[in-house]
Amino acid sequence: MAVGKMSVMQDMMASVEPQIPGLRRYARALTGDVSSADDLVQDCLERVVSRWSQRRADGDVKSWLFTILHNLAVSQFRLAKRRGGHVAIEDASEDAVARAPSQEDGMRHRELVARLDALPDDQRDVILLVTIEGLSYAEAARVLDIPVGTVMSRLSRGRERLLRSISADEPAHSVTHLRSVK
Amino acid sequence: MTARPISEDDLQAYVDDALSDDGRRHVSAYLSANPDVADRVRRLCEQRDQLRAAYAPILREPVPPELNLGRIVEASRRPSFASWRSMAAAVALLALGGGAGWIGRGVNQFPATGVLALAQEASQSFTTYASDHGRPVELRAADSAELVAWMSKRLNVKVTAPDLTASGYRFMGGRIVPTAHGPAGMFMYDDDHGQRLVMLMRRMASSGDAPMSEHEMGRIGGVAWARAGMGYSLVGDAAPKDIYPLADVIRAQTAKI
């Protein structure tokens, strides 16, 4: 029994630990803030530890982890924002991108992140999961609990909008708006 | 060959490198023949690379200690911080009381009594047993006759296991757990998502009723009440207001006991 439990824990550690940097990155992109992002990831990992043996054995670990994190972010962070704690993009993007190799890169990256952040949440989430976290379309669909076709259309619309926002070359904060909450 | 038409999904999959070799060749051929679309796809690929570069540094940051998985596993095996804190408070209070000759007063203020004490005991049972993956209950639902007989004997009252099936929770089984106020019966339930609930019941010191009251300790929420000298507390990893309707179902059933 003790041996069985030990190997279950080792199995969990081996599958989950390599995903932690990606979970931190997704949380950071969603919240735009280091400490609330890490709080979210901590909450997520606590749930993962307590529910590990209850997950579907045939399900893949990565999309299960991102599903838990995404749902926590939606229920905690977006709810808080709706209650009046909206973070201005200028403040939010400060933390969202960690130190870039050069100052010029840093500015360019912050601008891009701010524009991504200005997209509707549903389009931005799909771009983050697919482009940044490298989830397959099917995995992203599982995380967001939507059909694969919806993932594809959000991806296409979001990317197009981001392209237009960059070529329009207007300051990012002019497109700042309160995002809808699912 | 008669190729099927290129779709927007194909172009997105091209950007994400999610096409088969054949599909990729097919799209590449199409792009060479359609420079406008090729230009758009090229810009989409650039955008993809820039986004990845913008977020890449986060991946290289050292993981902070509070996200150390080994520590989280270890912490999950200890009693919750909240209960540790209240134990520390009790020790401090007793030390203060002893030193100042106020021990009687200290004991009066702590520990909790009535349904509040029961609520704490239920939360502790939840912390200990609901997180136990190997043996959360001592007698499983299949042995419920034996479980109910055992509980009825230890609690000296006729017990039946409340049924939450209509609310989506299956009866898993239960056990007798120790409390400062004598043995208590613990029933455990779970739903299709593996969410667990614990109901604890025991005899109360007074024979009266207590209204349903919500309580929350750390992440564990619950509702506790007493009826005819028996105390009940239903707890889970949820807000008390979400547990309330389930507690109501149990209360309606226990009225018949």
From TrEMBL, chain A:
Residues 16-70 form the PhyR sigma2 domain. The keyword Transcription applies. Keywords: Sigma factor, Transcription, Transcription regulation. InterPro entries: PhyR_sigma2, RNA_pol_sigma-70-like, RNA_pol_sigma-70_dom, RNA_pol_sigma70_r4_t2, RNA_pol_sigma_r2, RNA_pol_sigma_r3/r4-like, WH-like_DNA-bd_sf. One of its GO terms (biological process) is DNA-templated transcription initiation. Pfam families: PhyR_sigma2 (PF22029), Sigma70_r4_2 (PF08281). Residues 110-162 form the RNA polymerase sigma factor 70 region 4 type domain. Belongs to the sigma-70 factor family. ECF subfamily. This is RNA polymerase sigma factor. It comes from Methylopila capsulata. The gene is ecfA.
UniProtKB/TrEMBL annotation, chain B:
It comes from Methylopila capsulata. This is Anti-sigma factor.
